[in-house]
């Protein structure tokens, strides 16, 4: 039986822990679990896969019950509003379903809970959980993600315990998480949009990492990678699925139905807080990095990036860096989003092209939290791209990173 379950196409299982109470040896009182979801919004091609029935075109206000599913086509989207006021947005080329809950027991604390299982078999889903939810568990055959809503009685830096006053108490703070699962490559990517106790581990719990809002981690073939900082500002500008969660998007929220507005507004309090908190973190490591990259020092205690060069009279433009595919990337300036810079970077060879220019010297490298690449022309003019918050790893495909593009004159070394 176990082998049969794991052989099903690399599924991403999202389990929402919904209702918890103290157990007596005989009986537990339980809150109402998820029982239904309404198809709140449909864009283009969405199919409704009802259990034991022929798939059909989904219609607005269709109701899904456990074991039903939706399937989205190219450039399509489905939004589901659950009876606990959770809102789940399913992006294009995805299959999403939910199944009946099971009752689990955590001993010796004698805690019982209902668990409703969500399955994202392939694709992308954004999960917006209102206050009162307990948490979310995401599983693939080789990985496990626990998105545990933080309780105010917990220390912000502590690991959740099985105490009735921590993990299994209904949370006051809402949460937002985006999960992408590539079944073909057995690759899961988790993006935290809110702060809280969000932990990711392998099935054997050999490695566990925690995420804050604005941080992401990949699980590839059961191996949990390093936590990386992604640019929340860039994410909100480029990800339609997150509509209504960013600053200045109150007008988008106002276009939703009142019940959905309530959920989004609750979650917005935490997405905006996470954005402010990330800005403080980024200011902390970019200030020291820019000092090194532009004027910098060298030495065993403060090594220079291989791709970083001293620059005289630097002209710095902040923006968002994306690695699109393979060695290709783009940089989108904040002050002119139409002036996209094309980049080709090979971290293995340590080379970079910026807007097709290789110059007489080019180099790229990784160090500390950041990445850098520089192109120097024969006249000494330099163009340098800096990417913040990659934690010493190559920037991943499709993830927005805060960065800068600097031009000037390379200083003699």
UniProtKB/TrEMBL annotation:
<protein>
    <recommendedName>
        <fullName>FecR protein domain-containing protein</fullName>
    </recommendedName>
</protein>
<keyword id="KW-0732">Signal</keyword>
<feature type="signal peptide">
    <location>
        <begin position="1"/>
        <end position="28"/>
    </location>
</feature>
């Amino acid at each position: 039986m176990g082998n049969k379950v794991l052989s099903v196409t690399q599924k991403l299982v999202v389990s929402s822990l919904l209702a918890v109470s103290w157990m007596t040896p005989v009986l537990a009182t339980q809150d109402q679990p998820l029982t239904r979801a309404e198809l709140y919004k449909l864009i283009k091609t969405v199919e409704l896969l009802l259990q034991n029935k022929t798939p059909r075109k989904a219609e607005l206000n269709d109701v899904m019950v456990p074991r039903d599913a939706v399937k989205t086509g190219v450039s399509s989207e489905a939004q589901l509003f659950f009876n606990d006021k959770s809102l789940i947005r399913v992006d294009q080329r995805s299959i999403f379903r939910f199944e009946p809950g099971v009752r689990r027991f955590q001993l010796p604390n004698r805690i019982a809970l209902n668990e409703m299982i969500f399955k994202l078999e392939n694709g992308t889903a954004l999960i917006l959980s209102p206050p009162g939810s307990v948490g979310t568990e995401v599983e693939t055959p080789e990985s496990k993600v626990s998105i545990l809503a933080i309780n105010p009685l917990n220390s912000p830096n502590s690991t959740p315990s099985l105490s009735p006053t921590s993990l299994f108490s209904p949370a006051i703070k809402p949460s937002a998480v985006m999960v992408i699962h590539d079944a073909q490559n057995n690759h899961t990517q988790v993006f935290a949009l809110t702060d809280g106790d969000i932990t990711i581990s392998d099935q054997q719990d050999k490695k566990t990492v925690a995420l804050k809002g604005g941080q992401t981690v990949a699980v590839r073939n059961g191996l949990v990678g390093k936590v990386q900082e992604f640019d929340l500002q860039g994410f909100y500008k480029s990800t339609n699925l997150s509509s209504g969660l960013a600053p200045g998007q109150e007008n988008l929220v106002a276009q939703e139905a009142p019940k959905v507005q309530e959920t989004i507004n609750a979650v917005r309090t935490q997405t905006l807080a996470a954005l402010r908190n990330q800005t403080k973190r980024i200011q902390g490591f970019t200030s020291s990095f820019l000092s090194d990259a532009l004027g910098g020092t060298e030495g065993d205690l403060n090594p220079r990036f291989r791709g970083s060069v001293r620059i005289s009279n630097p002209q710095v433009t902040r923006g968002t860096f994306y690695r699109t595919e393979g060695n290709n990337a783009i940089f989108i300036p904040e002050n002119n989003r139409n002036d996209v810079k094309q980049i080709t970077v090979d971290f293995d060879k340590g080379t970079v092209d910026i807007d097709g220019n290789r110059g007489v010297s080019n180099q790229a490298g990784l160090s500390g939290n950041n990445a850098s690449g520089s192109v120097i022309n024969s006249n000494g003019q330099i163009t340098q791209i800096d990417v913040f918050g990659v934690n010493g790893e190559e920037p991943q495909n499709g993830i927005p990173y805060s960065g800068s593009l600097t031009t000037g004159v390379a200083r003699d070394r």
